[in-house]
Amino acid sequence: MNASPNRYADGVMNYRQCGNSGIKLPELTLGFWWNYGEGNDYVDCLARMAHAFDNGITCFDLANNYGPPFGAAESCFGRMYAENFKAHRHEMIITTKAGYNMWEGPYGCGSSRKMLITSLNESLQRMQLDYVDIFYSHRYDGFTPIEETMQALIDIVHSGKALYVGLSNYPTDKLLAAVAYLRNQHVNPLIYQGKYNMLVRDVEERHFDVLSNLGIGFTAFSPLAQGILSGKYTDGIPDDSRAARLNPRMKEMLTADTLKKVQRLALIAESRGQTLAQMAVAWILAKQIVTSVIVGSRTIEQLADSIGAVHNSTFTAEQLLEINQILL
Predict the structure, then answer these.
(1) In this predicted structure, what is the pLDDT of residue 17?
(2) Distance from first CA to last CA of the chain, Å, rounded?
(3) Which pLDDT belongs to residue 155?
(4) With CB atoms counted within 10 Å of each terminal CB, which end of the chain scores lower, N or C?
(5) Nearest to residue 33, comparing CAs of 242, 273, 307, 263?
(6) DSSP letter at 100?
(7) C-alpha to C-alpha distance for 162 and 211, rounded to whole angstroms
(8) Do 291 and 24 form a contact (C-beta atoms < 8 A)?
(9) What Å distances lie between residue 198 and 7, 30, 220, 265, 283, CA to CA?
(10) Residue 269's Cα: distance from chain center in Å?
């Protein structure tokens, strides 16, 4: 693959410092959650990844159980990397995670030392890598001692199999305990990953001030609320949509009140010269605490639409007030 020589040109992609670290991340990260499994065409997957890289997206977000089936997204990434991107390894931030269901038996789920280290070793094999840039503890599982999980992360960094560590889906009290343990052992957590969009805003009160005070970056996943904020469900759920295929609870989420909010938000987006999906991403990027937004685009057209958000992410005070009034 011949990467675009203009991928780092001014105006292509913006990069933000990740907390107090020396790392800058692109405002958009390419997510591999459900669009790089065995049911997806490899040529299409490669085209999306190449389009992302050509447009300055240098961060790629994976996890051990992304697929379907589990592990398939990492295997797809590994093939694309080995065949097309290996010469650009030094330009890429590649992440993976462990903590949710992965394999059968008592050790295939959770945040134990055995689970994390075994899972990372398998992830590296699937992705055909010697190391990842960021390895996340995907969640606080509720039973593994924080000390055990964090010591595993520390040892992973010391082994050279990850350059940085991140945390995801941790309640704030466990997050504070985890960061204290890591820093006591001179491993600074780089980033926190959490669900954040116009319809799910818990992290604003629970995490933003904590992360800012700690000097840790924040990356948002599910910016479109699984497609609700793209506006594509205002007339029902298409048969070929992710909601119809993978999320039987989507109909419960698509309440009359939510659909009314989406329709009103779409009018604001239109007045800004954006699609609703672009405005939803831009609204997140307007928050200073946010380092990057993970976009899980299913097509190049969706990816191109998301990329357009970085070029129009400034809001007037009146627009932000109107949006907030709609969301309340």
Answers:
(1) 98
(2) 47
(3) 98
(4) C
(5) 242
(6) S
(7) 22
(8) no
(9) 30, 20, 11, 10, 8
(10) 23
User: What is residue 234's predicted lDDT score, i.e. its pLDDT?
Assistant: 76
Q: What does each C-alpha distance from 159 to 3, 76, 284 come to in angstroms? A: 32, 25, 35
Question: In the beta sheet, which residues pair with residue 290?
Answer: 218
Structure tokens at 238: 């298409």
Q: Residue 59: beta bridge partners?
A: 93
Which H or E run includes 280?
helix 276-285
What's the confidence (pLDDT) of residue 312? Answer: 97
Fold of 15-230+278-314: TIM Barrel (3.20.20)
Q: How far is CA 83 from the centre of its chain?
A: 24
Which tokens is 227 given?
């497609």
In the chain, where the domains are located: 15-230+278-314
What's the predicted TM-score (pTM) here?
0.95
**What is the Cα 32 distance to its own chain's centre?**
9
Q: Enumerate long-range contacts of 207-213, CB under 8 Å, 24 or more apart.
A: 207/172, 207/175, 208/287, 208/289, 210/172, 210/175, 210/176, 211/19, 211/289, 212/289
pLDDT tens for residues 217-252? 999 999 999 999 998 887 767 666 656 665 666 677
Instruction: Go through the chain and tell me how many residues it has.
Output: 328
φ, ψ dihedrals at 5, nearest 5°:
-70, -10
DSSP state of 130: S
CA-angle at 267, arms to 261 and 270, nearest 5°: 140
What pLDDT, on the 0 to 100 scale, is given for residue 167?
98
Q: Which residues of the chain have pLDDT under 50?
A: none
Encode burial over 289-318: b for 16+ CB neighbours within 10 A, e otherwise: bbbbbbbbbbeeebbebbbbbbebbebeee
Give the closest residue to 187 by CA, choosing from 220, 152, 143: 152
Q: Which residue has the tokens 């007030």?
A: 321
For residue 171, the model assigns a pLDDT of 98
- Do 31 and 66 form a contact (C-beta atoms < 8 A)? no
Closest CA to 293 of 178, 191, 202, 167: 191
